[in-house]
Amino acid sequence: MRSLPMLKVSGLRKYYPSKQQGTWRSKQVKAVDDVSFLLYEGETYGLVGESGCGKSTLGRTLLRLTEPTEGSAVYQGEELFALSGKSLQAYRKQLQMVFQDPFASLHPRKTIGSALTEPLIIHRIGTQEDRYARVLDMLQIVGLQADHYNRLPHELSGGQRQRVVLARALILEPKLVICDEPVSALDVIIQAQILNLMKQLQQDLKLTYLFIAHDLGVVRHISDRIGVMYLGKLVEEAPTDELFANPLHPYTRALLSAVPNPDPSSKRERVLLEGDIPSLLNPPTGCSFHPRCPLATERCGNELPLKRQVAATHYVACHLV
Ligand code: ADP
Ligand code: MG
Fold first, then answer.
1. What does the radius of gyration of the chain's CA atoms come to, in whole angstroms?
2. Which residues are bridge partners to 142 per DSSP?
3. Calpha distance 249→236 (Å, rounded)
4. pTM for the whole thing?
5. Ligand 1 contact via 233 beta carbon (within 6 Å)
6. Residue 303 CA: distances (Å) to CA of 68, 264, 280, 296
7. How do residues 288-318 score in pLDDT, each as one tens digit?
8. How far is it, in rounded angstroms, from Cα 52 to Cα 231?
9. Which residue is closest in CA terms to ligand 1's atom 22?
10. Is 29 in the pocket of ligand 1 (CB under 6 A)?
11. Where are the alpha helices (H) located in 123-259, listed in sequence order?
């Protein structure tokens, strides 16, 4: 049985003013362009797409690190773009973000202990002793030891640093964690360890994840459902198994064909994407994927395809489906 949606994002847009000089009228970068999806409690929703398609912008907008241009996001019944003051602070405690580069997100001269204590101090949680005990607990939960408390980030390996970043995100007991490429900077073996840890933590701490990555193989490993993003738009959405068994959008098929397939008997054809990712400043007319699409027709260049439901939980925006 499916739980209630924890987050309902509708018609979300984030346009940045272009930094390009010398144009006679100002243009906008449509980093997120009319994105809608639901996030159910306890699930992992994987958001995948090539670099520059707007994934991080979407995450940052939901965290209120940047304001949306348009649209709505209802979190547990409340419009989160209307939150301010105390209610915004309470929301920020329930929602945390884990970034890609654990080295950049940890202060080089702060010990692991003080990095983990900081959020507790900011949110005025516990006495000094409580906080110390909580940090030691948290170190253990993410698979580190008490003697990491006094270490500095550079004394740790990349995987250990990412464990610290996870611990810091989880120490305030959030409900929703937005993970932006959390394992992209790590070796494959370490990636698998961190992904397994994240799965375990999700079960133990009843977390909901929005998991952002450019690598469909990584997203597959952890997601219940996947949304595929292309140039600021969601072009397909389905449960993970369904998406891999029955990809419908030509872009999804191309992404999928690049994922190494463990089954040698399967005859999945490699679809090579032609051309570069178009500029968000001058997005193609009609379907923004049409200049790279092997199947594009005239209609695709003229008419924007809308997201349609093709099965109970499968959505796609393509004229050819
Ligand atoms: P992704 O995370 O999928 O790689 P981003 O969300 O980082 O994509 O970027 C989407 C687009 O928005 C890119 O073209 C990027 O240059 C642009 N962009 C991101 N942040 C800003 C910003 N603060 N100001 C202007 N443009 C931005
Ligand atoms: Mg990004």
1. 21
2. none
3. 7
4. 0.92
5. no
6. 26, 39, 18, 12
7. 999 999 899 999 999 999 999 999 999 999 9
8. 8
9. 16
10. yes
11. 128-141, 158-170, 188-205, 216-222, 240-245, 250-257
The response to whether residue 52 sits with its C-beta less than 6 Å from ligand 1 reads yes
Which residues contact residue 75 at a Cβ distance below 8 angstroms, ignoring those fewer than 6 apart? 6, 7, 91, 95, 176
99 vs 185: CA distance, rounded Å: 10
Tokens read off for 135: 């940090």
Say if ligand 1 is within 6 A of residue 143 CB: no
- The per-residue b/e assignment along 253-287, b for 16 or more CB within 10 angstroms, e otherwise, is bbbbbeeeeeeeeeeeeebebeeebbebeeebebb
Paired residues of 228 in beta bridges:
48, 236
252 lines ligand 1 (CB under 6 A): no
At 43-60, the pLDDT tens digits run: 999 999 998 999 999 999
- The preferred substitution site among 57, 99, 229 for testing ligand 1, maximizing ligand atoms within 8 Å of CB, is 57
Which residue do the tokens 């394992």 mark?
Answer: 183
User: Whose atoms come closest to the Cα of 229: which ligand?
Assistant: 1
